[in-house]
Amino acid sequence: MAPDLDRRSDGDIADTALAQHRRLQFEVARYIEQLLGELETMARAAELPHLFYFLGMTRQEANAQTERSRTAR
Questions:
Q1: How far apart are CA 21 and CA 13, in angstroms?
Q2: Residues 66 and 26 sit within 8 Å (Cβ to Cβ)
Q3: How does pLDDT run along the chain (73 residues), one tens digit per residue?
Q4: For residues 60-73, b (16+ Cβ closer than 10 Å) or e, as one string?
């Protein structure tokens, strides 16, 4: 394994780290979006309109971040 690392340039290592970071951003944003969707459904069912509204807005932002992370990969 060490010989492979010796052949990789600093740029390759940085590219790999950046790709891993972008993947993490995508996965976390997608997970948060899913959780917010569930909370939004619960707020609607419980007739909590303000929570429903703010959770929906936050879910939309998480969706936008997911899309930005998807295109950056």
A1: 12
A2: yes
A3: 555 555 768 888 888 999 999 999 999 999 999 999 999 999 999 999 999 999 999 999 999 999 998 877 6
A4: eebbebbeebeeee
CB 9 within 8 A of CB 39: no
pTM above 0.85?
Answer: no
Which domain does 22 fall in, by range?
A: 2-72
Domain count of the fold of the chain = 1
Query: 49-72 and 10-45 helices cross at what angle (nearest 10)?
Result: 160
